[in-house]
Task: structure prediction
Amino acid sequence: MANRDNSDSSSTTQNFSNDGAITLVIPLPSLLTTPSMPKIAQLFQNAQLKHDNYNVWMSLMLATFNAANLKGLVDGTWTCPSPTITDTNDPTKTTSNPAFLTWYRYDQLVLSWLLASLSESVLPHAAGFSISRAVWEALERTYGSPSPNHALQLRLQLQSLHKGDSSIHEYLQKAKCISDTLTTIGDPVAPTYLLLCILHGLRPEYESFATSITTRIDFHSLTLDRVHGMLLSHEILL
Result:
C-alpha cells in the first residue's frame, strides 16, 4: 500500500522500478468526503455487534472501511509512521511527522466508528485500546475465533429458538445470523437441521405448516430462502 502524506488530496503516488519508472496512483481518503460520525452511528444503529452476529457485523464494517479507503488501518497494511522525523534544516533536531498526524487522524476516525458499532454488552471488550487495529483484533479473537464453548452456546440458542411476537422476517434473520456465526467459527449447521430448529420454534398456529413442510418428499432439498417465502405467504393468511 502506498505511503500517505499529510495532505487531504484525492490521490498519492509511489514509483516502482521495472525497466522504467511506473507511477501508481492510489486514492487517498478525504476528511471532506469521508462519512460523518452521525451518519455512521445511524448506519450502525440496527447492526451493532452482539454476541451472536459477528459475521454480519464484520461484513458491514469491512464494506464501510473499503468504501472510505480505510481498511488498511484495521488489516495492518497502513502501518503507523514514526511520530517524529529529523528536521531537514537541523539534523540534530526532530519535528512532528506529517504522515503520522494524517495516520492518527484517520485511525481515530475508524476507532470512533468501531466503538459506535458495538452494543453495550460488547463495548467492554474494546476498553483500554487506543488504536483501531487493536480493537479490531480483540473483537476478532473474542467473537471470530473458533471456540468449543462459543459454538455450543450458539447451537443451544438455535435449538431454543422461539418466534414469539416477532415477524417471520425477524425470526428467520435471527436464525440465519446464528447459523452464519457458527459457519464463521468453523462449526457450520446442516441446512436441514437449521430448518428443523426454525420450524420447532414457530407458534402453535404454524403447526399445520410445519407438518406439511417436514412431510414433503423434497424436504431435504429445501433451502432457507424457499421456506422463508412460504412462511411469509402463510403469515399473511393468519
